[in-house]
Amino acid sequence: MNARTLLGRKAMRGSLDVRKRAGSAFNAPICVYDASEKLGIPVWFKGGGSFGGMYSKTNNAILVPSLRPAPRQVFTCAHELGHWYFNHGTKLDEYEDGVACRQKDEEESLADLFAGHLLMPLTATSHAFKTRNINPNQCTEIEFYRVSCQLGVGYTTLLHQMNRTHNAISSSTFERLNKHSPKSIRESLLTALSEDPGHLVVADQWWENYPIDLQVGQVALLPPNTAINGVSVEIIHTTSPGILVQALCPGISSAESIITSWANFIRVSRKDFEGRSIYRHLEEADDE
């Protein structure tokens, strides 16, 4: 057995232990920020041009860049949680033009593998496709994008995890789906909008027991005939795929189908939020 395989198995065992200790089901998405807090590891969002993420062993805390795309933030937090779990020393990641500056040593590779297994374990990815009655080797790019949204990871990140790590999709499927970018998928779904919003969460009726997270200004496509309760989001367009909503202000709203039993919560945080993760959805005080 080669070193990469041994490292992968170590990462997978660690990720399952973390899910168990955090009380997260093995076949469901995990909110890595909430899980970290449950484990006693505070998560702080911090700004900075080249800041890419940090685990501080001295302060027993994780720092996540506030100026990165949401899927990148999620993976960064999971990566830094891996450093905590395997008792690595303080780790600081820096980026220049979106590219990591530090070479990948064994500890970095282990943390990456851990993050992949924590966020996208085979049990969770398989369950996501099975509940939708979809064969991942025969799915469309939009169906695959929906699953990546529910898991909170990037479209391409999930493609690599299912192809290289889980061997759950063939090379030909990988190549077919990899021809589509997240931007092109958003454009095909949001023909009613004049410009690309840069981030789109697509939630369907199989997205259950896990909140929909947005930042102010971001949009989500919800199932048709969905009603919104709350002021943190508003419906901005009704399209054939569903109801398009936009996040207006920090807070928590609920979404509920008018004709089915589907319902969920939508949590909204400030754009480029800086501060501790447990406060990211607090409503802003009215100073008037």
Structure, described:
- The protein has 288 residues and is of the alpha+beta class.
- Helices cover 36% and strands 23% of the residues.
- It is built from nine helices and 14 strands.
- The chain has helices at 3-22, 32-38, 70-85, 106-119, 122-131, 141-151, 155-165, 171-178, 182-189, and strands at 43-46, 51-56, 61-65, 91-96, 99-100, 200-202, 212-215, 219-222, 226-229, 233-238, 243-247, 251-257, 263-269, 275-276.
- The strands form three sheets. Strands 5-4-2-3-1-14 form a six-stranded mixed β-sheet.
- Strand 2 (51-56) and strand 3 (61-65) form a beta hairpin.
- Helix 1 (3-22) crosses helix 4.
- The longest helix has 20 residues, at 3-22.
- The chain is globular, with a radius of gyration of 19 Å.
- The protein starts with a helix and ends in a 12-residue tail after the last strand.
- The mean pLDDT is 91.
Write the layout of secondary structure elements.
Elements: H1 3-22, H2 32-38, E1 43-46, E2 51-56, E3 61-65, H3 70-85, E4 91-96, E5 99-100, H4 106-119, H5 122-131, H6 141-151, H7 155-165, H8 171-178, H9 182-189, E6 200-202, E7 212-215, E8 219-222, E9 226-229, E10 233-238, E11 243-247, E12 251-257, E13 263-269, E14 275-276
What keyword list fits this structure?
14 strands, alpha+beta
Question: What's the gist of this structure?
Answer:
The chain has 288 residues and is of the alpha+beta class. The protein is built from nine helices and 14 strands. The protein has helices at 3-22, 32-38, 70-85, 106-119, 122-131, 141-151, 155-165, 171-178, 182-189; strands at residues 43-46, 51-56, 61-65, 91-96, 99-100, 200-202, 212-215, 219-222, 226-229, 233-238, 243-247, 251-257, 263-269, 275-276.
